[in-house]
Design a protein that fits this description.
Helices cover 44% and strands 20% of the residues. It is α/β, with parallel strands linked by helices. Helix 3 runs parallel beside helix 5. The protein starts with a strand and ends with a helix.
């Protein structure tokens, strides 16, 4: 029994924080998990910047409403879901992911939750579990699934390496250089081909 585990941002949709950095004119917010392996550190830093600029959940959601999936992402996902079970495992937050899931045809997503004050200020975040992607893949394996995983960032490496087949997708040159053992693809066609082979 196979299940494909995909990252969300950078794989199916553009990076939310980069889009918000551009919309808000705060270039520091362009920093993502491609640059910072420590997600906890990254999020605390982001929350500090939001507080400093008086920005909250509404402003980020207004940006997300304008984000569309990457060209070809929904078609790729539709085809993949016609072949096998698919789950999106993301370190994003349910308050961000909702509108994007509608545009992707409501696939299953496991993600985290933001702590938001009544005035809309983001005060913290609650991770679903530690090392959420790797932990989720191991849990799926423990109930009889063979996992196939793909992602683009440092926080995807655990689930990619722990799976029976794992692929980098549109990753950075640095991550690709650090992990030459992982097949790396740039197009959905290439990724689909590799997943199909792994499903056989």
């Amino acid at each position: 029994m196979n299940i494909v585990c995909l990252d969300l941002e950078g794989v199916l949709v553009p990076e939310i924080w980069i889009a918000f950095a551009e919309a808000s004119g705060i270039p520091e917010l362009k920093r993502t998990t491609r640059d910072e392996p420590d997600y906890d550190k990254l999020m605390r830093w982001r929350i500090g910047i939001l507080k400093e600029h008086g920005l909250g959940l509404k402003e980020i959601q207004d940006t997300i409403a304008k984000i569309d999936p990457m060209p070809g992402a929904k078609e790729f996902l539709d085809e993949l879901r016609s072949l096998t079970q698919v789950i999106i495992i993301s370190d994003t937050f349910s308050q961000f992911a909702g509108p994007l899931m509608k545009k992707l045809g409501m696939p299953t997503i496991f993600c985290n939750t933001l702590e938001v004050a009544e005035n809309g200020e983001i005060t913290g975040f609650k991770m679903r579990c530690e090392q959420s992607k790797l932990t989720t893949v191991r849990a799926l394996q423990s109930i009889g699934f063979e996992t196939i995983a793909s992602g683009d960032s440092h926080n995807d490496l655990g689930m990619i390496q722990a799976s029976k087949a794992g692929f980098l997708f549109r990753s950075t040159e640095q991550i690709k250089a650090d992990h030459p053992e992982l097949p790396a693809f740039e197009t959905y066609e290439e990724l689909m081909e590799a997943i199909k082979k792994a499903l056989d």
